Amino acid sequence: MLYAILCYDSEDVVGSWTKEEDDAVLAKLHVVHEKIAAEGRLGPVVRLLPTTAATTIRKGADPLVLDGPFAETKEQLLGFYVVECASLDQAIETAKDLARASSSAGSYELRPLSIFDPGGLKG
Amino acid sequence: MTDLAWIDAALIGARPQALGALLRYFRDLDTAEEAYQNACLRALKSWPEKGPPRDPAAWLILVGRNAALDHTRRLKREEALPDETLVSDLSDAEADMAERLDGAHYRDDVLRLMFVCCHPELPVTQQIALALRIVSGLSVRQIARAFLVGESAMEQRITRAKARIAASGLPFEAPGAADRAERLGVVAAMIYLVFNEGYSAVGTEAAARAPLCEEAIRLARLLLRLFPAEPEVLGLTALLLLQHARAAARIDANGEFVLLEDQDRSRWNPRLIAEGLALVDKALRHRRPGPYQIQAAIAALHARARQAADTDWLEIEVLYALLETVQPSPVVTLNRSVAVSKTRGPDAALAMIEPLAVQLSGYFYYHGARGAYLLQLGRLGEARIAFDRAIALAHSPREAAHIRQHLDRLEQDSVAGG
What we know:
Chain A is α+β, with helices and mostly antiparallel strands and 123 residues long. Chain A contains three helices and six strands, in the order βααββββαβ. Chain A has a single domain (2-112), classed as Alpha-Beta Plaits (2-Layer Sandwich), CATH 3.30.70. In chain A, 33% of the residues lie in helices and 30% in strands. In chain A, strand 3 and strand 4 form a beta hairpin. In chain A, helix 2 runs antiparallel to helix 3 (88-102). Among the domains of chain B are: 3-104, no CATH class; 106-169 and 176-223, no CATH class; 228-304. Chain B contains 21 helices and no strands. Chain B starts with a helix and ends with a helix. The chains are: A alpha+beta (123), B mainly alpha (418).
């Protein structure tokens, strides 16, 4: 089954990392990515721009366009993965691998996918 | 990342909100800072053992406030302090309560914290130093290094600035809409100054001052999260991102400025550009143009050009013309003339800046640009005089060297022609 691993973290904290700290985190995560990819399980990997770049459209007869993210929360959705996992246990193990590599205080939310169209976009 | 590095990042991230709230409680900058420092010390003790709290800012506010109150009580009655673990053992429920108390004030707290640094009686350099110390939490040593002064001199400067602020009283009443808009403008200008301190540095200074650019961007993002729909805050943040995106390309190996048209664009930072362009789009949608947005839109046009020859100078000229009406200044007109020289030729550009001769007679770039237009028009004698004047006004050997290149080319041309 395909799982989305949604990465929530405090933007204030992640945003105060120096470039060196950020590079170090990315390098450690990259090792985990390669491991999942070698097992043929790694789908799209996405890091989102800060929530200040977000725009929210409230649906309705006349949709409302609002600046900012959908919800004001202590932790923000900062990125996500799509990973093939044989079971919830494997999905949890994968998320734990990622957690050990990033080791900030945020959370991963595991969401099994219902529909997945990989599309034709190249990264 | 190690535990300590994470805690450090969490403390830096939570600082503006926590210190802003403590300042509201204690109405005194020194007391608030002391309470915040106290809370940080306790965090360093408690978080590695118990794990970080869910909301670091709320934790710091509550612990900082309690610690300061204990301190006052102790001074009054010389009572024993409560057990350290009691305060460090805050449950999430208590933190939630603190958050509810403070969430509503969050915006004004952080804005006030930034605003007190912008006191009009403080010279600009003191405003910047104070903001870096109080809002960003940089150490005096870090700030001194960025300003290329000794640590004790910077310490004095900051102490004096704080005394001045304390003497004139802090604005604690909740601001009305007009006050808030005014504060926002003042704070935005301060952030832009912080950025320029880093951006205008060259040579050996550049490395020491580069962190100021990043700090300014962090402050701008912070302000934007507080006011996500303010077009000028969007514009300011975009402007800083787009300018900083060129950092690696705009100074060469010898520490010299590289002109925009000569920069290696493959060294521009695509992530910062993507973010900057996204913010420009968001800002323009509001159709309330202002100086930061217009400058950001101009920077965006440069960022979008894969090579210098692709630059949309027509659109840039339109934007400079708009900037001239919103924020008239001879320097803006001078910048507009550069776009005009590309679209309508050096004749039109020269005609545009001739009326500025008196106002900008002491301005290096005026004579540099004028010399370049005259050179393009083949008026070599006049070009030489303009370049000579520019060299005399140059602030640095680098600026002079750049103009001298023009002059050297002039000499060669005249030798070849003669």
